[in-house]
C-alpha cells in the first residue's frame, strides 16, 4: 500500500535570496508536512561565465547558483525545469544549470543532454512510496529542443518538448482571396520556394504563410493540435513511469492560450492534459502564463491548467545582455534598472502591474493506492504592493485576500464543473 502526500506550486522564477523570516518559516513548515514537494524552476544557474543567446523567453533568466539553497530550505525535493527560458544563455547556460542541479541532490526532470535524458521519468523515493515526474514544455524556441541520439550523431542538449500546430480556418472563398492577394507580393516567396524545392511540406486543403497554417473550412476559427509524434513519445514515458512508480505526475509549461484570454488553455493543452490522465498519470500540473487557470477533475484525477507563480523575481535580474538594451534603444552606459523602467514604463504596464501574476495558491493532495479523495488550496501572496525590490517573494495570504484569491480560482474552475468550498482561508475540492 502506498499513500503519498504531495504539495505543489507553480513557477519559481527566483533571482535573489529570500529572507529567512517568519513568512519563509511558515512556508517551509507547510511543505515539509508532505512527502513530495514540487515547483517549476524557471531560471538558469551560472555566474555569467556563459554566452547569452540573441533572443530570450522574455527576460534572459539567470540567477547565481546559490539560490538553489533557498529552494531546498523551503523543502522542495522534486522540480521540473523544461520551459521557455532553457536556452536564454545558449547551451552553456543550460549545461551549467544541469551541473548545479545534479550536484544539489534535487530530483529534476525535463532537460537533459539529449532527448532520452530530457524525456525520461525521474523518481522520488519517499518512505510512503515512489513518485515519478515527467516534465514537458510547449513554449520554447526551436533551438531549445533536445534531439535524439543517433549511432552516428550526438543528441542535442535541451528540453523535452510537446510541439503543436495552430490551424487558422477561413471560408473557402476567403482562402482563395487571401492566396490571390499574397501572391501579388513576395511576402510568402520563401515558403513557396521551399515547398517547390522539397524543403517544406505543403498542407492539404490549405496554405502556409511562412509557418502559419491557413485551412479551408465551413466554420472560421482557430484550433491547436498536439504533434502526434511527441504525444506518442510522452505517452510511452507515462506508461514506463506507471509501472515503475506508485504515483505519476506530468508537469507541462505552456503559455499558449485560447484567443486573447490568458486564463484559458489552448485546445492542444487541454487535449494533452486529458491524454496524460488517460495514459495513467495521477495529476497534470500546468504552469507558464504567470497567472492561474482553472482546475478540472477528469476521471477523478486533477488537471491544474496553471498554478500561476510561486516566486516571481523577474524584475530583480542581476544582468542582461546587449540585446535586452537594444529593445529599448539603450546603450552600454545604461543598467538593468534603466531597462526595466523602459520595459514596464516605470511600473505602469506589463506583468509588473497585473495583480494576478503575484497571487496564487499552493495545492496539496494525497494519492492513496492510486486514488485521490480531496484537494486543498492555500492562497499565496507575492507582495504585489511592495515595489520592485521586494515584489515576487511568496507568503501565505491573509484571510481577507485569501478569500478573494480562492474565490477567483473557484470561478475559473467552475467552468470545468469543479466546485471549491472555501472556509477559514482554505479551499477544498472533494474529488
Features:
431 residues, alpha/beta, 11 helices, 26 strands, 27% helix, globular, Capsule_synth_CapA, Poly-gamma-glutamate synthesis protein (Capsule biosynthesis protein), CW_Biosynth-Accessory, Metallo-depent_PP-like
Distance between the termini: 20 Å
The percentage helix is 25-40%
Count of helical regions: 11
Low-confidence parts, pLDDT < 50 over ≥5 residues?
none
Spatial shape: globular
Number of domains: 2
Mean pLDDT: 96
Which percent band covers the strand fraction? 25-35%
CATH level 3 topology of the largest domain: Purple Acid Phosphatase, chain A, domain 2
Largest sheet: 10 strands, mixed
CATH architecture term of the largest domain:
4-Layer Sandwich
CATH superfamily caption of the largest domain: Metallo-dependent phosphatases
Based on secondary structure, the structural category is alpha/beta
CATH C-level label of the largest domain: Alpha Beta
* Integer-rounded radius of gyration: 22 Å
Number of strands: 26
Amino acid at each position: 500500500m502506498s499513500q503519498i502526500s504531495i504539495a505543489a506550486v507553480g513557477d519559481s522564477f527566483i533571482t535573489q535570496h529570500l529572507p529567512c523570516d517568519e513568512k519563509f518559516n511558515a512556508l517551509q513548515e507547510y511543505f515539509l508536512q508532505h512527502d513530495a514537494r514540487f515547483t517549476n524552476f524557471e531560471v538558469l544557474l551560472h555566474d555569467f561565465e556563459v554566452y547569452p543567446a540573441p533572443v530570450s523567453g522574455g527576460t534572459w533568466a539567470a540567477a547565481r547558483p546559490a539560490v538553489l539553497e533557498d529552494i531546498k530550505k523551503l523543502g522542495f525535493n522534486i522540480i521540473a525545469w523544461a520551459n521557455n527560458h532553457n536556452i536564454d544563455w545558449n547551451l552553456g547556460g543550460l549545461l551549467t544549470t544541469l551541473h548545479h542541479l545534479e550536484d544539489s541532490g534535487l530530483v529534476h526532470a525535463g532537460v537533459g543532454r539529449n532527448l532520452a535524458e530530457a524525456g525520461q521519468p525521474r523518481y522520488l523515493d519517499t518512505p510512503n512510496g515512489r513518485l515519478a515526474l515527467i516534465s514537458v514544455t510547449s513554449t520554447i524556441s526551436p533551438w531549445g529542443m533536445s534531439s535524439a541520439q543517433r549511432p552516428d550523431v550526438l543528441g542535442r542538449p535541451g528540453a523535452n518538448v510537446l510541439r503543436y500546430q495552430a490551424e487558422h480556418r477561413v471560408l473557402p472563398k476567403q482562402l482563395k482571396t487571401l492566396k490571390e492577394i499574397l501572391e501579388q507580393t513576395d511576402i510568402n516567396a520563401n515558403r513557396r520556394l521551399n515547398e517547390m524545392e522539397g524543403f517544406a511540406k505543403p498542407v492539404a486543403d490549405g496554405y502556409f504563410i511562412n509557418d502559419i497554417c491557413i485551412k479551408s473550412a465551413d466554420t472560421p476559427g482557430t484550433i491547436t493540435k498536439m504533434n502526434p509524434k511527441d504525444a506518442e513519445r510522452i505517452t510511452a514515458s507515462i506508461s514506463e513511469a506507471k509501472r515503475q512508480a506508485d504515483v505519476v505526475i506530468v508537469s507541462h509549461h505552456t503559455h499558449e492560450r485560447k484567443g486573447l484570454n490568458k486564463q484559458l488553455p489552448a485546445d492542444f493543452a487541454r487535449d494533452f492534459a486529458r491524454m496524460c490522465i488517460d495514459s495513467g498519470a495521477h495529476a497534470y500540473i500546468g504552469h507558464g502564463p504567470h497567472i492561474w487557470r482553472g482546475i478540472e477533475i477528469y476521471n477523478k484525477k486533477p488537471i491544474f491548467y496553471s498554478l500561476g507563480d510561486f516566486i516571481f523575481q523577474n524584475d530583480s535580474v542581476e544582468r542582461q545582455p546587449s540585446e535586452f538594451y537594444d529593445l529599448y534603444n539603450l546603450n552600454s552606459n545604461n543598467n538593468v534598472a534603466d531597462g526595466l523602467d523602459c520595459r514596464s514604463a516605470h511600473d505602469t504596464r506589463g506583468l509588473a502591474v497585473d495583480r494576478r501574476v503575484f497571487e496564487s495558491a499552493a495545492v496539496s493532495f494525497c494519492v492513496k493506492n492510486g486514488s485521490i479523495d480531496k484537494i486543498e488550496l492555500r492562497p499565496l501572496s507575492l507582495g504585489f504592493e511592495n515595489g520592485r525590490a521586494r515584489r515576487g517573494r511568496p507568503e501565505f495570504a491573509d484571510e481577507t485576500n485569501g478569500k478573494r484569491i480562492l474565490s477567483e480560482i473557484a470561478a475559473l474552475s467552475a467552468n470545468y464543473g469543479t466546485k471549491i468550498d472555501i472556509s477559514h482561508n482554505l479551499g477544498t475540492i472533494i474529488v
